[in-house]
C-alpha cells in the first residue's frame, strides 16, 4: 500500500517535471508553417468539436430557408468571410491561405455541421484558431443570415456563386449592439468581454483580465478613482463612455484610436472599469 | 550619497545636455546610474509630481489625478501619442502644454537637468 503510494506520487512528480521541461525548453514549434503533431491535432480538433456541441443545446434556430434571409447572408458572407474561407471557385486571400489551422472550406462545413453549431462558431469564434468572434461586429439576425447562406453553399456551383456575388449591392450591416435603453446602467461582465473584443487588452494593463499586461498605453489600474481621462476631461461615467467611443475628438494626437465602439458596448466597458478602484 | 556627489552628477548631466544638441543620438549616455536615479527621486519630490501621480518607490507620491507612472521603461507611448524616448520624455516633463495643449498636466518650470534625472528614475531597472 505504502509502496504504491510512493510510486504514484513519484510518477506525478515526473509528469509535472516533464510538462515543465516541455514548456520551458521551447521545443514545441509554434511556427504557423509547422502543422501540429498528429496527437496534438487530434486533441485540439476533438476538444473544439466537443466544446461546440456542448454549448449549442439551448440555441433556438430561426427559419433559415427564406430567400431574403439567404440573400442577406450572401451579402454579408462575400465581404466578411471570403477573405479567409473563400467561396465556390474563389480562393481565400494570401493571409487566409497562410493561416494555421487553414480556414475551413465552408461548403464542407455546411454538410458536416448543424446550423446551430455554425451559428455558435460564427458568433463566438474559436480561440487561437484565427476564427474571430462576430458577436460584437454583427447583429444577431445577420449572424443567422450568414448561417442560412452557408447552409446553401454545397448546392452552389462556382459559376452560380460568381454570378450572384457580382449582382450584390453594397450593404449596411445592422447595428451589432443596438443602443441600450436609458434605464440600463450597463453590464460589467459583458463589458469585460467587450474590452477583449475591442482589443483594449493589446495596449493596456487591465487588472482582472487575463493577458491584459501590455504597456503600449497607460495602465488602467485604479482608473475608477482617476480624476482626469486623457489628461483633459474629468473622469465620470458619461465622459468615460465618450472617451472610449471618440478618443480622437477628445485628444486628437493620442495614440488611442477610434475603435468604432458601440454605445452599449462602451457603457458596459465603463461599468467594468468602474470596478477598478 | 553625499551632497557634492549629487552636485557633480548634476554638472555631468548638464554637460551632456549642452552637448546633446550637436551630438549624435547614439552618444546619449545610459541614464541608469544610481546617482541619476537618486537625483530623480529628489526632483520628483521637489516639483510635487506625487500630488497627481503614483510613482513606485516614492511613498508620498500617491496622487490619482493623472495616470500612475508604473512600468515607464516599457511604455510605448507617453503624453498624447508621443513615442517613449528619453528625449521625448524630457520634452514632455518640461513643456506639457506645448505637446498636449489643454492637458491637466501643468508647466512646472522643470530644468533640463532635473527632467533628465526624473527620466533616469522612471527608466531605472528595478
Descriptive labels:
heterodimer; A: 277 residues; mainly alpha; Cytochrome Bc1 Complex, Chain D, domain 2; Immunoglobulin-like; 13 helices; 50% helix; B: 126 residues; two-stranded antiparallel ribbon; 5 helices
Q: Could you explain the architecture of this structure?
A:
- The complex is a heterodimer of chains A (277) and B (126).
- Chain A is an all-alpha fold.
- In chain A, 50% of the residues lie in helices and 1% in strands.
- Chain A has helices at residues 2-25, 38-55, 67-80, 82-85, 94-97, 106-112, 115-124, 140-152, 158-167, 188-197, 237-245, 247-250, 263-274, and strands at 228-229, 233-234.
- Chain A has a two-stranded antiparallel ribbon.
- The longest helix of chain A has 24 residues, at 2-25.
- Chain B has a two-stranded antiparallel sheet.
- Chain B folds into 2 domains: 1-29; 33-122, Immunoglobulin-like (Sandwich), CATH 2.60.40.420.
- Classes of the chains: A mainly alpha (277), B mainly alpha (126).
- Chain A binds chain B through residues 203, 205, 215-219, 221-222, 225-228, 230-232, 251-255, and chain B through 54, 64-68, 70-71, 74-77, 79-81, 100, 102-105.
Q: Which helices and strands appear, and what pairs or packs with what?
A:
The complex is a heterodimer of chains A (277) and B (126).
Chain A: H1 2-25, H2 38-55, H3 67-80, H4 82-85, H5 94-97, H6 106-112, H7 115-124, H8 140-152, H9 158-167, H10 188-197, E1 228-229, E2 233-234, H11 237-245, H12 247-250, H13 263-274
Antiparallel strand pairs in A: 1-2
Helix pairs in contact in A: 3-8, 7-8, 10-13, 11-13
Chain B: H1 3-20, H2 34-46, E1 77-78, E2 82-83, H3 86-94, H4 96-99, H5 112-122
Antiparallel strand pairs in B: 1-2
Amino acid at each position: 500500500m505504502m509502496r504504491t503510494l510512493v510510486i504514484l506520487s513519484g510518477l506525478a512528480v515526473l509528469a509535472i517535471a516533464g510538462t515543465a521541461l516541455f514548456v520551458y525548453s521551447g521545443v514545441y514549434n509554434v511556427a504557423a508553417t509547422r502543422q501540429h503533431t498528429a496527437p496534438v491535432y487530434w486533441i485540439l480538433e476533438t476538444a473544439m468539436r466537443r466544446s461546440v456541441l456542448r454549448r449549442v443545446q439551448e440555441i433556438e434556430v430561426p427559419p433559415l430557408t427564406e430567400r431574403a434571409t439567404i440573400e442577406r447572408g450572401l451579402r454579408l458572407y462575400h465581404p466578411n468571410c471570403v477573405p479567409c474561407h473563400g467561396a465556390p471557385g474563389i480562393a481565400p486571400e494570401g493571409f487566409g491561405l497562410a493561416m494555421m489551422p487553414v480556414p475551413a472550406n465552408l461548403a464542407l462545413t455546411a454538410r458536416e455541421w448543424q446550423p446551430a453549431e455554425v451559428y455558435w462558431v460564427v458568433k463566438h469564434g474559436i480561440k487561437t484558431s484565427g476564427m474571430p468572434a462576430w458577436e460584437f461586429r454583427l447583429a444577431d439576425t445577420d449572424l443567422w443570415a450568414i448561417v442560412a447562406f452557408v447552409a446553401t453553399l454545397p448546392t452552389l456551383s462556382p459559376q452560380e456563386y460568381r454570378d450572384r456575388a457580382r449582382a450584390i449591392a453594397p450593404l449596411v450591416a445592422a447595428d451589432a449592439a443596438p443602443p441600450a435603453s436609458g434605464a440600463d446602467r450597463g453590464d460589467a461582465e459583458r463589458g469585460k468581454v467587450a474590452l477583449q473584443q475591442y482589443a483594449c487588452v493589446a495596449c493596456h494593463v487591465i487588472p482582472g483580465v487575463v493577458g491584459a499586461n501590455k504597456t503600449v498605453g497607460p495602465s488602467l489600474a485604479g482608473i475608477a478613482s482617476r480624476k482626469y481621462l486623457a489628461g483633459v476631461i474629468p473622469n465620470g461615467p458619461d465622459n468615460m463612455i465618450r472617451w472610449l467611443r471618440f478618443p480622437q475628438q477628445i485628444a486628437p494626437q493620442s495614440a488611442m484610436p477610434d475603435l468604432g465602439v458601440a454605445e452599449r458596448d462602451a457603457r458596459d466597458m465603463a461599468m467594468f472599469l468602474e470596478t477598478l478602484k | 550619497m553625499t551632497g557634492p556627489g549629487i552636485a557633480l552628477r548634476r554638472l555631468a548631466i548638464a554637460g551632456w545636455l549642452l552637448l546633446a544638441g550637436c551630438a549624435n543620438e547614439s552618444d546619449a549616455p545610459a541614464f541608469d546610474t544610481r546617482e541619476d536615479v537618486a537625483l530623480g527621486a529628489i526632483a520628483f519630490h521637489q516639483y510635487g509630481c506625487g500630488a497627481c501621480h503614483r510613482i513606485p518607490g516614492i511613498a508620498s507620491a500617491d496622487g490619482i489625478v493623472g495616470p500612475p507612472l508604473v512600468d515607464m521603461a516599457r511604455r510605448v507611448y507617453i503624453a498624447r501619442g508621443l513615442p517613449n524616448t528619453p528625449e521625448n520624455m524630457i520634452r514632455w516633463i518640461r513643456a506639457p502644454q506645448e505637446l498636449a495643449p489643454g492637458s491637466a498636466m501643468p508647466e512646472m518650470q522643470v530644468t533640463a537637468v532635473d527632467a533628465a534625472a526624473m527620466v533616469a528614475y522612471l527608466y531605472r531597472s528595478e
